[in-house]
Write a structure and sequence with these properties.
Blueprint: H1 2-20, E1 24-26, E2 31-34, E3 39-42, E4 48-60, H2 66-72, E5 78-86, E6 91-100, E7 106-111, E8 120-121, H3 127-136, H4 138-158
């Protein structure tokens, strides 16, 4: 049991560390996907599930954290969430999440073991449907990333 807890902490630490070196791709007004976080899902026992992908999103703005801000007496700047997509039955689930203040200090966090995860059907025309399609096609996500990296420079050049 002690080895399991240590292993879990190491995995969580690696996951969180990889999140801070993220390459965020903006996919709508408030949501971003880390293009480098998309991986085949490995469950808590270390088994790879090739029908599932795991990835991180970042959410900024729009005041969705108001209740949490009141409860923690903190101003939340953004939240990170790790999702699992199961392509075999077109569902999505939250694996972990964290919120941060303006200084980048953690305000709250949670994570679920495999037996606690609840998969939800992916609703048509939802953010989840867009994310799932982009995760399924990482080349498209990488192209979006490159476009977003060059767009500000192009806009600057045209204003001169």
């Amino acid at each position: 049991m002690k080895k399991f807890i240590i292993l879990l902490l190491i995995i969580l630490n690696i996951t969180v560390a990889s999140c801070f070196g993220a390459s965020w791709v903006q996919v709508d007004d408030n949501n971003f996907i880390d293009k480098d976080s998309i991986k085949i899902y490995v469950d808590n026992q270390g088994y790879m599930n090739y029908n599932k992908r795991v990835f991180w999103t970042k959410y900024e703005g729009n005041g969705i954290y108001k209740d949490l801000e009141k409860a923690t007496n903190s101003k939340i700047e953004y939240g990170l969430s790790q999702y699992i997509v199961d392509y075999s039955n077109n569902t999505i689930a939250t694996k972990a999440g964290m919120t941060y203040d303006k200084e980048g200090k953690p305000v709250s966090s949670y994570s679920y073991q495999d037996y606690e995860i609840e998969y939800q059907a992916i609703a048509p025309n939802s953010n989840a449907e867009l994310w799932v399609e982009l995760v399924k096609k990482p080349r498209l996500l990488k192209k979006l990333y490159k476009l977003q990296q060059t767009s500000p420079q192009q806009n600057t050049d045209t204003n001169e």
